[in-house]
Design goal:
With 292 residues, this protein is an all-alpha fold. The protein has a single domain, classed as 2-methylcitrate dehydratase PrpD. 64% of the residues lie in helices and 0% in strands. Helix 2 crosses helix 7, helix 6 runs parallel beside helix 9 and helix 10 runs antiparallel to helix 11.
Length: 292
């Protein structure tokens, strides 16, 4: 299987060979890695297992996060649902799941970087929530993960997935784009709708800065995962309803790359701008440094 260098080429390959977007990714990975398609699918199945487990472990987490800035937030949302304080709907469910994975990561637990550790809660939270609604099989979820991977491959090639290089638009923005496309695929949307969802989600994250307080992946990162997971669901719903992205997905990725290059370094994971240098952000930094 030949390599695709844009989301449009990816879709064209699926059409050319009469296969799904997921199958294109699997066959391409097999051709470049030398591994069998079965091995590749088994590896992605293992990723899915880890993702599901990270949600469960995040809700049961006992260990404190590195900076102690984000403990028990997922449980608060989960308990609020159980107690009828907030609605038991896809927004609340995707929120506590994204928070759970983010908190587990910040406590040095086992997660899947999708595409990065800082954005690790978005993809599992959205897919598990939608799969729960649709009673999707693990095989369907694995295929959706390959679609997410296809989107991530092009973002990484044409722009970046690193906050240090492109700000949080490259981390949480990329994850939301991947998740939105994967959700559309899980809902049996067309390849065109998958790309529209990816574009719609990423467009809403353009310019998002990476400003971790005290240099830790806790504030604002963990709660940002919850917000961006909800945004991914909204983008998927829009695309499935027939709403198109006027700017094609590949061009949105190009815009993200340009913005990332122009973004000041203080907004790219250096903790020298944004929330990190607010009075409270500085106080937290001083307190943590004093305790180290």
């Amino acid at each position: 299987m030949e390599k695709f260098h844009s989301l449009a080429e990816w879709s064209d390959l699926a059409d050319k060979y009469g296969i799904s977007l997921a199958e294109v990714v699997v066959k391409w990975e097999a051709s470049v890695s030398g591994r069998s398609e079965t091995e590749i699918r088994n590896k992605m199945q293992n990723n899915l297992v880890v993702m599901k487990k990270s949600i469960e472990e995040g809700l049961q987490k006992k260990d404190a996060t590195m900076g102690g800035l984000a403990n028990g937030e997922a449980v608060k949302v989960y308990d609020a649902i159980k107690n009828g304080v907030i609605a038991d709907d896809r927004i609340s469910r995707v929120s506590y799941r994204a928070l759970a994975v983010g908190e587990l990561n910040a406590a040095m637990g086992c997660i899947v970087a999708a595409p990065t550790a800082g954005a690790c809660g978005i993809l599992p939270a959205t897919l598990v929530t939608v799969a729960e609604e649709k009673n999707s099989s693990d095989r369907e979820l694995v295929n959706a993960l390959f679609v997410a991977a296809g989107i991530g491959i092009i973002i990484a090639e044409k722009a970046t997935i690193a906050g240090a290089e492109g700000g949080c638009q490259a981390e949480c923005g990329s994850a939301a784009s991947m998740a939105a496309g994967a959700v559309v695929y899980l809902n049996k949307g067309t390849p065109e709708q998958v790309l529209d969802a990816a574009a719609l989600a990423l467009k809403s994250a353009l310019g998002l800065v990476c400003d971790p307080v005290a240099g830790l992946v806790e504030v604002p990162c963990i709660k940002r995962n919850a917000h961006m997971a909800v945004q991914a669901l909204a983008a998927a719903d829009l695309a499935l309803a027939g709403v198109k992205s006027i700017i094609p997905a590949d061009e949105v990725i190009g815009a993200m790359s340009e913005i990332g290059r122009d973004m000041a370094s203080k907004y790219k994971e250096t903790s020298r701008g944004g929330l990190a240098v607010t009075p409270t952000g500085k106080r937290i930094m001083e307190e943590l440094l004093g305790n180290s």
